[in-house]
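Trying the structure run again after the queue cleared.
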Amino acid sequence: MEQKVVVLSPALRLHNLILLFLFSLYASPSSSELSFNFYAASCPSAEFLVKNTVSSASSLDPTIPAKLLRLLFHDCMGCDASVLLQGNGTERNDPANTSLGGFSVINSAKRVLEIFCPQTVSCADILALAARDAVEFGGGPAFEIPTGRRDGRVSSATNVRPNIVDTSFTMDEMINLFSSKGLTLDDLVTLSAHCSAFIDRFRTDSKGRITVADTSLDKTYASELIQKCPKDASSSITVDNDPETSQLFDNQYYKNLVAHKGLFQSDSELLNDGRTKGLVENLANDQESFFQRWGQSFMKLTSIDVKTGDEGEIRRLCSATNG
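Done. Tokens:
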């Protein structure tokens, strides 16, 4: 895959994370060969087998849904499972991706599908379906997505960094990056991070004390963050952006934003910027609206610039090309 947009939260190790992206994507997806029930004839049990694998894994580890969502988002735009490929210099070697999880779930689903439907279901489709199912298992909406994606043969770490939306980005920087891909950004959300990901919102005074530099933060929330991330805090310390319902797929994040409790600078930008403030307030007040928008945006996101037809391949193993 040549170009993609992912979110960078430096050196993330996600424990109680639900990762939510909400895009309004006005670009026309180049997915003419994707279709609903693509595997109806060639592998009719494909979606059931993927869902069953995700369900089993989630029952053992409640963080699996979040990990699968994050894994998908770091593979898209152009969801072609390139992030799953192992090897020196692949996308998995970039610092933005070294803390990704959920690979074992995708590999497990692939092994089962190779038994019932050899070299039929792509790893790209498995990842998209698994992330879709992860939303439902996290308490979010259930919805259908088209399938028929094929797997990419190329994965390069050099493709990651130029397409990252950093957590310190301003609204203009986020919009400009997505506009360069033919997309319009309404909302971009990342819900858990290491202390280093938001340290720019604080400063150290002459006596070595950490104080708030960003006055838009709720004072009580800012004090809590300082306690969790004191000076010289270990890089292993993580902070949930949504401590209220960190393992649920809901609209609590938007409620936090309205209360000026957005963890990242880019979070606060969503509320402070007139172009997105109204949407944030709407989603904070209407979870059903959020669910509806999520399903629509997820389907668009996973359909843009995908490989179909004779492009790419159907891998036998998700971690390696067929050679």
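The chain has a mean pLDDT of 78. Worth checking whether this holds up in the mutant runs.
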